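Record type: ASSEMBLY
Status: queued
Input:
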Amino acid sequence: MTPSSSIAAPGAVPGHEAHDDHGHHPSYLTDGTTVKSWLLTVDHKRIGIMYLAWILLFFLVGGIFALLIRIELLTPGPTIMDAMTYNRVFTLHGVVMIFLFMIPAIPSVFGNFLLPLMLGAKDVAFPRLNLLSLYVYLAGAGFALWGMLNGGLDTGWTFYTPYSAHTTTTVAPVLFGAFIIGFSSILTGMNFIVTTHTMRAPGITWFKMPLMVWALYATSCIQVLATPVIGLLLLLVTAENLFSLGMFDVARGGDPVLFQHLFWFYSHPAVYIMVLPAFGVMSEVVSTFSRKNIFGYRAVAYSSVGIAFVGFFAWGHHMFVSGQSTFNAGVFGVLSMLVGVFTAIKVFNWVGTVYKGAVEFSTPFAYFCGFLFFTVFGGMTGIAVATVSLDVAWHDTYFVVAHFHFIMVGATIMAFLAALHYWFPKMFGKMYHEGWGLVSAALIILGFNATFIPQFLVGNAGMPRRYYEYPERFQALNVASTAGASLLAFGFIIIAIYLTYALIYGERVDNPWHSKGYEWLTHSPPPTHNFIGPQPTYPEEPHFYVDPKKAQGEVSDV
Amino acid sequence: MSDLANQFLFLPERASTFAERVDFLHYFVVGTTMVMSAGVGLAALFMFFRYRRREAHQHTEYVVPDLKTEFLFVSVPLVFFLAWFAIGFRDFTWFTTPPKDSMDVYVMGKQWMWKFSYPEGPNGVNVLHVPANRPVRLLITSRDVIHSFYVPSFRIKMDALPGRYTQAWFEATKPGTYQVLCTEYCGLSHSKMLAEVVVLAPEDYENWLQEQQRGRLQDRQDALADTSLVPPVARMAEQGQKLVGTQGCLKCHSVDGSKHIGPTFLGMYEREEKLDDGQTIRVDEAYITQSMMDPGAHIVAGYQNVMPTYQGKLQGPESAAIVEYIKTLRTANVRETASEGPAYDPIQ
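Status: finished
Output:
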């Protein structure tokens, strides 16, 4: 990690000395520049930056494997690898993307960096625990990657028994790695919950918290409640694989479907661990770039909690054709619809926020547009696959692959990139090139659609997922999807280039968006203890852009 | 019209009664999705333009929705979603309830092939022959890991679980050949686990069946010397009758209605049994199979949990044959009290 050295980089524009002199306090980036001062830091901002570095690395690994999958599927038969390798590659893609990227991405990076700033706190409630959760995450990641390189499992990221109990590949290290990562997730969640409850600055009541905080709070509740279930399950499967326990083996009185229930009891709420923080990011972005208070703040806040709650009661919709009873299918079907309603509330309120606003079409806002499309379309196809009779046709086909990439990956990546661009000046005090930002945003949104819209159609045509070879009639759509994936990869490369450039040579900025979010009340990059001098006061709501002189009597209803 | 829609949506040929129901809802859902997405998208685009920023520090008005707007936001999607759910659940219930007169076929998934067996007919691998316009119930199980039986043209799918039967049914509407795929990841050759359903016109099906029952060996005198080529017992029930003897089932289960260590097989199929935990269970293919593979799962009241598991000892077709045999032991009336004449009606 060397972003700290960039502060003194020769390319820094003149005039920033004045800014540095501003309080004679070094920013968190320059307060200690030794390797040790980073590795043993308890500063939530540095921990967030270290998470960012690792998470980007794992995103690169998962992305390379995604491209390998797409290249293999260019032709109906074998293309660049054999079937066993392919099965390992898609498993690796899934495990790395889900456990090492999607789940920790926004909470661990931006949650860590922003939560205390948004609450007016000096740090999270348990700074040392926070550092521990980073190392627990890395230990788990190391374990899992070591297992994948030494043998590599071929079960898919869902590890369904009895296959995962019988396969000859090495399942145990990867499952154990995922088990360890679970602890990191629980620790971070606990830390955020306690921080939100106990460390809000005077003036910040529950309904004056930024919506990002609401989203992180709801996410943390899911992390703390659901992760232990998958932890136990992964231990059971490891034991089944190593010692033939018989938990999921019919011959010994076990039940393979029990595995699916336990697995989805975690993994369905885990989807909301991935997208709820994304919703939080977008609430901040749409408010800042339309200079408006959130239309229906309470509705958006409550719907985060609502999603976290009903998310626990919808897992059975992954199992409509697993032989579960018709009654169960009905119950899980109707409960799944409620998630859609809560998401719809958010979408309508975001669009409503723009009403009578002042929209600046910058890079983060471009990602908001992409996000809006992926969320609406991905969410609506989610309702479609939760419709029981339709799911009989679609279950385990590429339609489902396209659906979850739209809502889970599309929405989360849009939010991750929006967050990266929106808070880049906050984190590093530097600005990137806006033109390149818009170009790469357009490429990524276009590439994403080009990759996954053909997958909806090939799923309609009946192509099952996890297929190494496929009947020839599916080829045209697969080629289209691969073409889209290369466009997507190209967009990411551009981002990597101009953000690295901005990190070194970027123009110094403090609050380029004129945002009124609480986190912008301190300097960019913030000093080590977040605030210099007395703590700021919070007389206004977050997301409040009304002219103070005219604020009296200016409230209008729609 | 709907053919055009199917082409636009890349849907495969529609060849079963269930497919018609699924496709109708598919158009409704996808159509609404498109309209709603377009509506939200266009409204957003319009507002992005209409309310674009004119100066850097522009102040805006404080706008909050009234209760009516929020109510609208909740109720409109809710009404649509519940409507889809209602139609979808109605069709799903229809799909999980095979008609009483449906024809049974046993399906067994195995890494990496599909085996089909008919109670009255031949066994086959990877090709399933069925008549058109007649409901066919599939009784699906697996020999090893979880598979899933999927026929895109019929829009049907059902998981194959080891040690348990699941069921699915369809009524094919036109003769032809339709692909069967496995949709639950099952290992190395998952994507090669293909089969086909050959739908024949009813009279063609009868001819085919007779041809199979006559045995092809008549045409192949040279093969008669090779006993391994002799087809297995044609009727699964007869095979099952032999198996209950050789597997030792009859040491504990009677076939004449008398009480023994285990419940009698006579009249067992489709009976409502009282369990020792007070619940009742209907004896169907799934319950019989489960009782063979995991005997302790549901014990009928009044019996001990003493039966060993047959998982691994019985192959899929063998357990299917035993189920078929038990299904033949039907009687209208079994008494368990003191006899006042004939204890039961003649076996049908």
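Annotation: Residues 2-45+61-95 of chain B form one domain.
Annotation: The first strand of chain B starts at residue 62 and ends at 64.
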